Amino acid sequence: MAISHLKHKIHEMAHKGPRPNTAADNSELERQLNIIGEGTYPRATRLHDGSILVVHTTFQGGANVIVATRSLNNGVAWSQVGEIARGFGDIDNPFVVQLPSGKILCAFRNHSKDKNGHYTRFRITICSSADNGVTWQFLSTPDENGNPKTGLWEPFLRVARDASLQLYYSRELAGNDQDSIQRISYDEGVSWSSERTISGAGLATRDGMLGFAPFDDKLIAVFETDEHGPMAIKSVESPNDGLTWGNRQLIYAANGSSVAAAPQITNCGGKLVVTFQTDEDGTEGGPTAVKMLVGFPGAWSDNILVGPMKSCWAGIMSLDEANVLVMFDHGGCRSFRATIN
């Protein structure tokens, strides 16, 4: 879609508000949610066979368990197909991608704690599956450290245009400082390059919760940051598929002292769609809802409610040229189909 035409469509959306097929209140949204399964932090990918695979964290008998759940009908019904990792530390933040070879990789945080619940080691771990998510094996540990004050969080995997594998994640440098890190693999996740910082360098800010999508020959990254106070959503962009980054700019700041956090992004039919969680419609610091924006850096629609109050940790993927699947924790993992007009 031409940029000029997209700007016109965004202008229309900003003046018309939510589209007719997008629920505008909590009760209507509740009726439209599909159950993925128990747990939190759902992230999805379209497999080569057309099915959708979601990975999410569940909690069983004191253990954190990352499971794989599959849909054969575009997110209407779901069934668990595999278990990726299980442990009594802090195992969470899964992200899944299928490689051109058909191998499926899941990245997640894999942290150890002592008997008092204090962190002793931080890791980003990669596991792989060769049977569409049914069985999984350990593959690699792209990063780890034993500094209890500098955590590693929220990995994101994507296949670059040159078929290399890009891993992004958040690294704490101090309580008030967190940067966004990139590593690259040229052997399907077995070994990894040295790190590169794509946002947060030279700033005492907590950049985190990265999401990525291509747009207009660029790669757009979204993230949360407290650069100017309460958490807000910003972006940076790469003109060369992730090799260099710049043009840091604001996407969304919540009302007053409320927060906008945990963004994700997808390209749907040439439009960028961003989800995030915010407490701006409720009590400050209270439960969040999930909202959605449509547009591109510098021009975004009004926000649209897609996850009712008490929703958080949303993921998003495009279903086709006009529809996206939004997934979030709402008393368990739920999915909602939204149409982008």
Structural features, described:
- The chain is mainly β.
- It has two domains: 167 residues, Neuraminidase (6 Propeller); 162 residues, Neuraminidase (6 Propeller).
- The protein contains two helices and 25 strands.
- The strands form six sheets. Strands 18, 19, 20, 21 and 22 form a five-stranded antiparallel beta sheet that branches. The protein has a four-stranded antiparallel beta sheet with strand order 1-25-24-23, with no helix packed on it.
- The protein is globular.
- The N terminus is likely disordered.
The third-level CATH topology of the largest domain is Neuraminidase
Number of domain units: 2
General shape: globular
Uncertain spans = 1-23
DSSP strand count: 25
| Level-1 CATH class name of the largest domain | Mainly Beta
Radius of gyration: 19 Å
At CATH level 2, the architecture of the largest domain is 6 Propeller
Mean pLDDT over the full residue set? 92
- The total of helices stands at 2
**In angstroms, what separates the terminal alpha carbons?**
13 Å
Strand content: over 45%
Helix-and-strand structural type: mainly beta
Helix percent reads: under 10%
What sequence of helices (H) and strands (E) makes up the elements? HHEEEEEEEEEEEEEEEEEEEEEEEEE
The largest sheet is: 5 strands, antiparallel
